[in-house]
Amino acid sequence: MKRFAAAALAFCLVPAVSSSAAEASMDIVDTAVAAGNFNTLVTAVKAAGLVETLKGPGPFTLFAPTDEAFAKLPAGALDALLKDKAKLTAVLTYHVVPGKVMAGDAAKLNSAKTVQGQSLSIDASSGVAVDGAKVVKADIATSNGVIHVIDTVVMPNQ
Question: What would the CATH number be for the domain defined by 2-10+26-150?
């Protein structure tokens, strides 16, 4: 957690530089808000205090669970997470990989180390899946990275 806080501080101190005119104009947070199917994720990001970090220059790769993915959690699990900032932060940062990893690149990997510190397993034998969550939409470009939409909330080992 301290490592992530230090990384977050470092990200805030580095000026954002757009490397391509074709890059999307909205950051990861604004893109998620505009999409309309990440309301639970956005609420959780706000509760964990990660908005500024995910609006920072990055780049970040976000494996973003939809509202439907959060609805699959066992009854009470989301409320419990929202009340435990440390666990919530761990779960959310487990969905973020430093750097911009496009789907084609992810498909060539077996795993990817997350901001949380553990690694997500990647399986590209039938589409792309991370820790068993299917990537249902890939390569949503943002000004500070990329979003891959997943159908399940993935959880780090405790």
Answer: 2.30.180.10
